[in-house]
Amino acid sequence: MPYFIYKIMPGPTDLVKTLEKLDQYGSFKEAKTHARSLRAEIPEGDRTQIKVMFADSELEAEEKLMEKREEPILREWEK
């Protein structure tokens, strides 16, 4: 399965995001290195995110990126 690199730009609400596929790699190491270099280019204060997603297809990767995930519950010892 390939690793997809996406640029995620915030929309008017938290549920609406704009996704732009930037690249695709066969190995995690290459994808991680490229994603780090892209993140370094984002100006301070910009809410754009660069994410690496492991999926069978572009459609599956985009579905995973668009799903609403619950905030993790912090335990007392994690605070």
Could you walk me through the main structural features you see in this protein, from its secondary elements to its overall organization?
- The protein has helices at 28-41, 58-66, and strands at 3-10, 17-25, 49-54.
- It has 79 residues and is α+β, with helices and mostly antiparallel strands.
- It has one domain (3-59).
- The chain has a 3-stranded antiparallel sheet, sandwiched between helices.
- 9% of the residues are buried.
- The mean pLDDT is 89.
Key features of this structure:
single chain; 79 residues; alpha+beta; 3-stranded antiparallel beta sheet; 2 helices
Low-confidence stretches are none
Oligomer: single chain
Strand arrangement across the biggest beta sheet = 2-1-3
Distance between the termini: 37 Å
Residue-averaged pLDDT: 89
Strand content: 25-35%
What portion of residues is helical?
Answer: 25-40%
Shape call: globular
SSE string, helices as H and strands as E:
EEHEH
The value of Rg in angstroms is 14 Å
DSSP E strands, number: 3
The main pleated sheet reads as: 3 strands, antiparallel
Count of distinct structural domains: 1
Structural class: alpha+beta
Short description:
With 79 residues, the protein is α+β, with helices and mostly antiparallel strands. Helix content is 29%, strand content 29%. It is globular and about 40 Å long.
Blueprint of the fold:
Blueprint: E1 3-10, E2 17-25, H1 28-41, E3 49-54, H2 58-66
Antiparallel strand pairs: 1-2, 1-3
